[in-house]
Amino acid sequence: MRLKPLLTPALLLAMVGCRGPTPSEIDVDGDGVFANVDCNDDDPAIRPDAVDICDGIDNNCDGSIDNIAAGDGTLFYADGDADGFGSDNGALEACDLPAGYATAGGDCDDASAAIHPGAQEVCDGVDNDCDGGVDLNAVDPSTWYADADDDGFGDLASPIVACDQPSGAVVDATDCDDTLDTVHPNAVEVCNSVDDNCDGDIDGDATDAPTWYADVDGDGYGGSTATVACVAPQGHLSSSDDCDDSSAAVFPGADELCDGLDNDCNGDIDGGATDTPTWYADADADAFGDPTSATVQCNAPVGSVGNGNDCDDASASNYPGAAEVCDEVDNNCNQLIDDDPVDATPFYPDDDGDGVGTDLPSVLACSAPTGFGLGIDDCDDTRDFIYPGATELCDSYDNDCNGGADEGFDVDGDLYTSCGGDCDDNAAAVNPAATEVCDDIDNNCDGVIDEAGATGESTWYSDADSDTYGDPTDSTQRCAAPSGYVSNSDDCDDIDPNINPSITPSVSACDGVDVNCDGLLQGGEVNYGDSAVCAGTSCAELLVSGASADGLYWVTPAGRPAQKVYCDMTTDSVGWTLVGVARYDQRGLPGWNGEADLNLSDAGSTSLHWHYGSDLVNALAASDEFRAECFESNNDYLRYWWGVSAYHWGSLTSATESWGDYGRTGISYPTVWATHHFGLVSGNNETVAVITAHTGNHWACAGNSGPGGEGYTGRNGVSNLRLWAR
Fold this sequence. Notes:
By secondary structure, this protein is mainly beta. The protein has a domain at about 530-725. About 5% of the residues lie in helices and about 15% in strands. The chain contains 4 helices and 27 strands. The strands form 8 sheets. Strands 19, 20, 21, 22, 23, 25 and 27 form a 7-stranded antiparallel beta sheet that branches. Strands 2-1-3 form a 3-stranded antiparallel beta sheet, with no helix packed on it.
């Protein structure tokens, strides 16, 4: 590194009187270039190795101002027509705008100041705005209209804006139907339901329109009022031969009526009328005529009426509608004598013939009909022993019609008699209206003692298994216990007689059944593997016996005392036992490198740091198989395994070495380790089913990026490990 001289005011003062420095020794602006080659030693930005920029200064000391390199300046375009836009050909790069140039290019005709980008496009056959289109989007186009039917008149709904007249288009826009060449403003209007001349009036003033005549009275014949139109107006017809268009009863061919009009328009009033009436002589002047004296003509003769319904034209009291009276004469001419007379007497039905009628609907008659009589006081006209004044009997009837039945025959005063349904007339609480109660008595006299629904019933419970304990879910209400029912509801399984509160649980059942119905699984009632009493021999054996969920179970490995362990029932479906968890952040704690049990209070945890001792691990590895699992890992590979577990229990030097060399006397090395390949596993939380011995190294979860192994020392990214055995 070259040291530059440091000039300070003090140093400069000290140099007074001494030889002054030469230009090759001075660098005032401290830019590393001495004054003899720096063209401006007061500005560190100006020096021979600087880049010349557009600032009006010789930045690189080459004797030229703003001598810029290509790409450092601004492009300017030659503007021959001085319209502010230059031609893209012959662009010039410079720091400042040269004379005769513009900052913008794109001028497609630099000889005309009216032609440039952004100019107003007009209809002149020139590309005024340099967008590549001649007269495209011009501001002064003409509007043309499509003439599809080529009748010389265009369609207002089909405008075409263009500078020049398009083919098939015209200036006119008055055609009202551009699909028909017969329809246009100069066409002749005819009756065809089309506005031929486009005046907005369909068939209006059509040259071939017929004449129609108003039918004012709506009788189907027109009168004298005429209208010329293509289609008949409402209420108009083609005929005009109605002789009176104010009356719907008058028209050619109408029926002639007796109405003083020439209905059929034949010139003869009422001649040959079809409705000529018949008149009848009314000698008694009661407005009803004698049917035997008739005259047919339009007008009524004197002393005649229009009906012949009088049955007696000699008496003004006898005619249709007259009041019928009891006089043995047909007063109202209905051919019945004395029927429903106004002075009739009411007679009442007496069905039982006891001489007294009822208040049922009466019959009015001049004399009593058979089965009827006077009086309405019989309270039961179906029984001849019931009527006012009859002797009262004990038969549940009001014999004397005084409003009370069986008076004097209710001994216990409960309003019911022995003949009226009281099954015990000496007990007022026993009668047909009484409430049945549980007392071995037929309280309501229905013939059933203590039937279902009686007051005071008890609840009884089904005992289907006959163990004297009832099912709480199956009950009934009865006064006494039905067959197969008991009074208690203590049975928790009414199908099995060996499950009830009197049963003492077996210590060896281990089937998860609450045999004594106390709501608890205790002793031998728990499931196999759920307690020390019901411990299995191993996780694998529990899996075969039906356990399927991962979790804590009790086992007795190799005859050892019952031990609570964590079983993995799902991986490989073989039943792995967790024998230790090694956390790298717990390394060095007591027991890390020893054979003794470590942190057994955490045993069974899948994440805390602990391990069993070697003897228990060996007992749990009945099949001599182990599985290593890295978790919470930041590594790529499962590398070397630390000895025989995750806790530095020593290094195996050969596949045949006895585990006794590491404090496990008499326990042979699992040969399966030596016969299965260990391999590499990628990703987090990976497992290896079987571990292979690796001579001279420890096994661990390490993060080396490739195969091979550094062992315990030199490892990269060591994480946590679980050890499983079976």
